[in-house]
Amino acid sequence: METFTAHRISQDDNVLFPDIMEIDVDRVLLTKNRVFGHRTTTIYMKNIASVTMSSGILFADVRIETTGGRVYRSEGYRKADARRIVELLTV
Q1: C-alpha angle 12-71-28 in degrees, rounded to nearest 5
Q2: DSSP string, the chain
Q3: Which of 18, 46, 52, 90 has its Cβ near the most Cβ atoms within 10 Å?
Q4: Is 88 helix (H, G, I), strand (E, B) or coil?
């Protein structure tokens, strides 16, 4: 399992509570931390329809769309981490 943590200083709301993405052979765990608790979403690899990365000057965002049409965004990763996430999810 590979774990990626978004950078704490990014353009979105994860300055204090960064997103965490854990990628396993058959699933992705996306944890969105909040002031009170967190929300973890499980996305199974077989349900991933597309993965895109958009990058700015310092950070990159990852967008995962499922076969059911749901879209999950995770913001503020280092560009190298975002490229690795895309690589793992599109194999």
Answers
A1: 90
A2: -EEEE--SS-SSS-SSS--EEEE-SSEEEEEEE-SS-EEEEEEEGGGEEEEEEEE-SSEEEEEEEETTS-EEEEEEEEHHHHHHHHHHHT-
A3: 18
A4: helix
Q: In the chain, what are the domains?
A: 2-89 (2.30.29.30)
Token pair for 20: 């965490």
Sheet holding 38-44, edge to edge: 2-5, 20-23, 27-33, 38-44
